[in-house]
Amino acid sequence: MPELARDEQQNSPARASAHAAEATDGKPRSRWSSHTTFLLASIGSAIGFGNVWRFPMMAYSYGGGAFMLPYLIALFFAAIPMVVLEFALGQRLQRGHVALVAHIAPRWEGLGWATVVGTFLSAQYYQTLLAYCLVYLVNAFRDPQPWAVEEAARSLSESSSSLDGAEASSGLQPGSGEAGGETEADAALAAVRSFWREEVLQVSSGVAETGGLVGPLYALVWAVVCLGACDGASSIGALNKLLMPMPFAVLAAFFARAVTLPGAGAGIRTLFSPDFAAICEPLESLVQSGPALAFQVFPIAMGLMPLPQLWAALFFLMLLNLGISSAVSMTSPLTTALCERLGTTARRVAPPLHLLGFVSGLIYVSRAGTYWLTLSDHFVPMFLTIVVGLSQCLLVSLAYGARRLLESLPPEDQRLAPWWAFCWQWLLPATLSLLLLAQVIHEGSSPFGGFPGWALAVGWVYSLGPLLLVPLFYCAHARAHGGRRGGGVMGAVRAGLELGAVRARARTSSSAVPEVSRVALASNEMSRVAPPVDEDLFSVVVLTESERPGAAPQSEPDHAKGSNEMADG
């Protein structure tokens, strides 16, 4: 941090980034080898299973084309500003997420830990989906495929268990290759459900009945993700160079094939024709939703194509590629945070950390795993993600300053318009607050059904538990520094308002007194809010003509010296 303060005084953002790029133990951080590598890694992190099964399900359920309106609003008012904010913070401070938050506001370091821990917990059930992809990929080459109607009927007749009410209602009779009185589509759906529930999940009767463990490929998935996280940016970049082009090629092939099938136009119109009434009243008759869409409905679509083994193998290989790149980006933040805190390398931290994630995530590959996966997938994206995103926006706005962040980016990267500062300080927090309020109201009026009360309580703890790290770290930091007053939430708000006022006065005075090079906050209130923070974080840099790159050095006027001495005091 002292190096960063000196560099800002010398007006050298490039040198500031270079110093900040060093880890806490003085070792250089892993860097992206090229802009292309970083772009591929970003795409791999952003594109995952949700783009394959969540978006089509949500679009069809909420009115087709009408769903695009709230989707685009959320995309441009929340998702894109949040991504750009995180990119800007990373480019400016060159730190992992926890170290970044601790640098801005040390007492709120727990917010950074809550973010990376919550992301790591999400990775636990995310790896389960990767294990399912491996199961389907291996079985895709069989002829006939195990989810074909004839094969499913044979395996069902040999099994002592029967399908539950949902499967039985489809009319598939054990020992026969067709559904009694039902259509061929119903028979195909019953067949693929049979393989999914009886062979892959071996699902139990309820969330309390875990039974034995299934899915032996779960450990293999964790091992692959661990290898991707061991070398930081270098291994992630190499992994995405190998994996990312393939999904786009497969999707292009699927699209070309789909638009040539009979009824393709009607299907596209059905999916994207706007039905604004359905936005408030979602369809309840959707064939399948959630992860089951990828593992039940899509295999049927693959079976309707020529060479179904080839198409099924390509599809699940594509899902595997998308999932691995996203999974590595979900476990890497916690790995990086521990490396920076312990002063060690990812090769030492990643193996035990991923082993812990594997062991603690075994509940997802038990016979009740599908119930726990559904609970986790409901609570984590709905609440934890929004809360930590909103907290990060407020932290940047109050403790660092959105405009200051925008202006402090290195010159070669400073292409962002002032509009982004407005988004980070006002638009993004307002959007996330409305989303959080809507989620709370919806959950209060229509609780997540189908689960006992104790299971829902576990879901809430799983979602909001990482947020307990925020007060724990806050109290620990306050205790370590004497528990000074003024460091609470209202103290941070007052500090942010005072900081904005000082910056406004600095911008006004800089036009009248261009020699003033630096205006620092010296109020007791600010020192009580965050006493151990570098003074640089609560200062305003006003560039003068003599301080701009390439300008000739000039002697400092007496009144400027007096201003600096007063600021330092």
From TrEMBL:
Biological process terms in GO annotation: sodium ion transmembrane transport
Main location: membrane
Keyword tRNA-binding: no
SUPFAM superfamilies found in the cross-reference section: SNF-like
Record's compositionally biased regions (Low complexity): 160-172
Cellular localization per UniProt: Membrane
Membrane topology: Multi-pass membrane protein
Cellular component terms (Gene Ontology): plasma membrane
Keyword annotations: Membrane, Transmembrane, Transmembrane helix, Transport
PROSITE patterns: NA_NEUROTRAN_SYMP_3 (PS50267)
TM spans (from-to): 37-56, 68-89, 110-138, 217-236, 248-268, 310-332, 353-373, 379-400, 421-441, 453-475
Ranges for region Disordered: 1-31, 160-181, 547-569
UniProt-listed Pfam families: SNF
PANTHER family: BLOATED TUBULES, ISOFORM B-RELATED, SODIUM/CHLORIDE DEPENDENT TRANSPORTER
Identification of the protein by name: Transporter
Species this protein is from: Emiliania huxleyi (strain CCMP1516)
Lineage summary: Eukaryota, Haptista, Haptophyta, Prymnesiophyceae, Isochrysidales
